[in-house]
Amino acid sequence: MTDFRARMTCLLALGVVGPALADPPTIDGRNIPTDFAGGTLLAMQRFQTGFGDDADGGQFGFGSELDAMYATHDGTYLYLGITGNLQNNGNAWQIFIDTNGQGAGAQQLYTRDVFGTPAVGLQDSNAPVPADFGRPRYLAGRPDYCPGMDNTTFDAGFAPDFVLGFSGGSPLGSQTRNYYLVNWTTLDPVSGGLSHTNEVAGLMTSGDPTASGPSGTLGSFLATSSLGIKGAFDNANDLGVEGGNDLSTLADTATLGGEFAIPLSLLGNPTQVCVFAIVTGDNGYQSNQFLPTDDTSTLFGNIACTPTDWNTISGSQFACYTLGSQGCPQPGGTGNHCTADVNGDCLIDIADLALLLSAFGSQPGDGTYNPAADLAPPTGIDISDLTTLLSQFGDNCN
Asked: What tens digit of pLDDT does each residue of 31-77 get?
């Protein structure tokens, strides 16, 4: 549910445009708040974790949690940092990324196909497993237990285009290292979920970002990925939230977790991205660890297997980050931050104004809607967007 307070939170996030970074984050899963000190804090966890708290401090610890989520960028990558843990039992982190508002993407998500029909709820335990879901189990679920993320409805204004997900385990059979298989799933909203595509981006080795190559380079798994995503995970976090479903004030103490560098070209060189992250079981069983989180409740337990309509949960379950113009030597250049560079030519001028006015009054999903002109989604293109553009008019982002 996107209430006034949640909208203001998102607008504040959207108002921050990171400059080109002299020192981008080190992709090692460590010192995450420090690495992203020049970026944006997108969300902070409010609740203890219903998936168990890790007090071990080792790479094979118990429990899974999401503590805080950060973003920044340079001319090549979008960087995401999330502090927390992931238990070595098949649990998963799923990071949904929306690059263009509701101009495309899966605002309602279908992830399963049984006899050619998207699943609506739990499947009969005797139902056959489709030969090829074409997507990871944490998205597709398991017919005899949980429907994964099938039939999920995201908050109005959030329609993810991609999912970066990874699960904890040792797929190569070794119990001396904790491996995470990283998947990159492209969502297709037109087909009702039947045409999502998935590519294995590689392996992370917990606590050792150099195990398969230079820092942050994902190791190959069965095939060599050409996606160019970098990622590292350090699972030794024993700080952050405790176990339970009560409020917690300790999320900001965590410093370890996952760091990722996603090529901007893979994302379509967006000017804004919106992100939602959640911890699930290997079959999509949903925890109470998601970011951004419920913003009013004092207790929040695991969601379990029920298909979720996030509009019914208090707050805005996505946070947005504005990258500004891509291809400019110094995004944010002169004058105000260059968030209003609608056409991406590094100038705020009459051409940008014309594009905004041509889409004025439109909402996500309208034929005239231009996500690049929606400078403060998900409110649609209105007077606030026009005011922002006029305040930057004449700026040179070079």
From this structure: 999 999 878 899 999 999 999 998 888 888 789 999 999 998 887 88
Q: Above 70 in pLDDT, residue 380? A: yes
309-314 average pLDDT score: 91
Residue 192, pLDDT score: 61
The pLDDT tens digits for 245-299 are 999 989 999 999 999 999 988 998 888 899 999 999 988 899 999 999 999 999 9
> Using H for helix, E for strand and C for coil, what is the string for the chain?
CCCHHHHHHHHHHHCCECCCCCCCCCCCCCCHHHHCCCCEEEEECCECECCCCCCCCCCCCCCCEEEEEEEEECCCEEEEEEEEECCCCCCEEEEEEECCHHHCCCCEECCCCECCECCCCCCCCCCCCCCCCCCCHHHHCECCCECCCCCEECCCCCCCCEEEEEEEECCCCCCCCCEEEEEEEECCCCCCCCCCEEEEEEEEECCCCCCCCCCCECECECECCCCCCEEEECCCCCCCCCECCEECCCHHHCCCEEEEEEECCCCCCCCEEEEEEEEECCCCCEEEEEECCCCCCCECCCCECCCCEHHHCCCCCCEEEECCCCCCCCCCCCCCCCCCCCCCCCECCHHHHHHHHHCCCCCCCCCCCCHHHCCCCCCCCCHHHHHHHHHHCCCECC
Class of domain 329-398: mainly alpha
Domain range annotation of the chain: 4-322, 329-398
